[in-house]
Amino acid sequence: MHPLPPNLPAPLSAFLTEVREIKRLRVAAGYRHTPTNAREALEFMTRRHLIQIPPIALIRDEIIPGADYDVPVRLYHPAPDEPLPVALFVHGGGHVSGSVSLYDPIARKLAAASRRLIVSIDYRLAPECPYPNALKDLIACVKGVFPLLDSLRDRLSFTPRLALVGDSGGGALCASAAHLTQFEPGVAIERQALIYPSLDYTLSKPSVTENGEGLLLERQRILWYFDSYFQRAENRREVSPLFMPLTPDYPPTLVATAEFCPLRDEGIAYVERLREYRIKVEHIHYPGLVHAFLNLEDLVPDTCAELYRRVGDFLAGPTTRDDDAKSVRS
């Protein structure tokens, strides 16, 4: 295993040193990936390092009906009397892990930063519910969120403008839903923010190998996630957002990438592809960071605060689309 990069923040470097030692001991003991230990690992890491939980004026659990599954959602309204626009938040976890409860602090911070009514989605997880169930749940929420909110007008105000926000595997679901709904009349996704997203299910980019061992998210873990998610011999290239068709109706997009994330290069390639199609795109790149750093907030608090601010600024942007693509690096 390669030495840790020298430009990692010191707290993050110490954390990764600990993770490497835990991995060494587990491998020696015959460790293998299972849904249970994957979920426990994400739960332990997130609850250990994501400890600042801001208050939000209104938090409410609801259900959005789908064709074959009623999707649990949690609403976060920072100002219930104000008609704020709406954003669906789709948590990460490789399509196998994560929940609305675990990602509650992140949803709260997105609501505060964006001044949007955040609707966090408890979509179905693999391997119990493989592809395309999670994507179907998100699309059901895209179509059903405003009927739900209409039924709650005595409790909250909102403006019927919709954005998507997702990290990691949640970013994959957001981008996939945005691609598919381009072709559906009456479905309007205003913009989307993708945070270190998974966009290439074929894992064809160099950073998957370059950053694929000893930097938290590892290539073998990603392969296991995808094998858990795709159980019916799907063509993984065809269902990868990086290779899906684009039209001028694709929403303006923010992509955040991290230097030592194995998904870095597919995020950069996605930015370049959107730019080629003259779709408005902003790109924020974070040197010295790893995948899932929002879940490690107490190790890199200033960077996390900046990312929330940048996502909030993007989601608060104008409703009109700008034909000139834009790339912002930081």
UniProtKB/TrEMBL annotation:
Residues 88-294 form the Alpha/beta hydrolase fold-3 domain. GO terms for molecular function: hydrolase activity. Keywords: Hydrolase. The keyword Iron-sulfur does not apply. The keyword Hydrolase applies. InterPro entries: AB_hydrolase_3, AB_hydrolase_fold, GDXG_lipolytic_enzyme. PANTHER family: AB HYDROLASE SUPERFAMILY PROTEIN C4A8.06C (PTHR48081), ALPHA_BETA HYDROLASE FOLD-3 DOMAIN-CONTAINING PROTEIN-RELATED (PTHR48081:SF8). This is Esterase/lipase.
